[in-house]
Amino acid sequence: MNEDQIRENSGQIQEDIQAERRKKRWQRRRSWTRARSSGVSVLVLGGLLLLTALFLLVFPRSTVSALENRTLTPFPKFSFAGWFDGEFTSGVTDHYDDTVPYRDSFQTMSNRFKRMFGLHPGKNAEDVSNTPADPEDSAADAETPADAAQTDPAAPADAAASANTAPSGPMVPAEAEVPPLPDYSDATGRVALTFDDGPSGPNSEVLLAMLAERDVKATFFLCGYRIEECPAELCKKLAEPGHELAMHGYSHTSFKEMSSGGIQDELSKTKELIQKNAGVTPTLVRPPYGAMNDDSYEALRQAGYPVIIWDVDTEDWRNSDPEDVANTVFEQVQDGSIILMHDMHQSSVDAAALIIDQLKSEGYVFLTVSELAQSMGVTLAPGERYRSIEPPEDESAAEESSADESAEE
After folding, report:
1. How far apart are CA 336 and CA 189, in angstroms?
2. Of 35, 168, 184, 225, whose CB is crowded by the most CB atoms within 10 A?
3. Active-site residue, 196 included
4. 3-class DSSP state of 397
5. Which of 216, 245, 375, 214 is nearest to 308 (CA)?
């Protein structure tokens, strides 16, 4: 073998060695890329599983209920506040009532996590018992007027006597004396305009001014914690023109997710806040999201509160076009309708003004919910649900009969 052949063989060997090295480097790089991709995939999958687990822990009942009742619909404008607070549910069914702003969302999330750890919203661990309080025990622990008469010499002499006439059983809100209403028999229709999730500070002031300008009374379903966040005199301003103040829970938590004792606690706190700030006693309840089950209906029946829902949902919480919102009402409104709106946005105030102007021009009159029931001759019963207010069947049948007789004459 000559020298040239030796060089050629050596060069070939060197090329083979370099090629083998490049091949090994490429294989190592490929293996590392695959491992890195697999690791990223595992992390992403783990994150998705963790988010799914957290979602099911926080929203087990509301999500399953919405799926069972086919109320889940695409949410047009995604926001974390809307996702966490159930804005993706439809306003068409009884399982959805309304939406709340961001601060409501964090309040609701906080309450849900508290319930996960056995805590009731708004209470400390040492104040909470997992078993609802026995009404008989609570009644036994409460000081009666007779006890006060025995322990306090300055108590009125008739305190003990009044104790003997105290009603037994569930606490029922005292009925306020309702003045007689004008005769609205010639009106095209009678409707109740209702606003949820208030008070909302400056927006409530603008809404009140608009209603006063049009001489219209409405019903405000207030959240307890929002009353605490707003100036104390705002509630009084809401009540002074003759508007009706009612309850929308304290923390805007679904009643379906709460025990009977939790519902009673929410309503008790909200009622006290309205009495303290506005000087009136609320007698009506609208459950957050309109969500109710048999247990929550029974809880409200025992508490003595009618359940006010709606038959016209403006969906003003997601539609900021006042004309679209108003047209929704014009397409659905009828005599006895309860119209759902929200005390949150300027667009809702503008829409309400359009609704009032148009319906008034057509001969409709606007009443509070209690006035609407009184006008229809309906007594609102505790624990009963009202989507609208319709006259009793026997009375309406009698009116139709008398109308037919008059036509024949």
Report:
1. 7
2. 225
3. yes
4. helix
5. 245
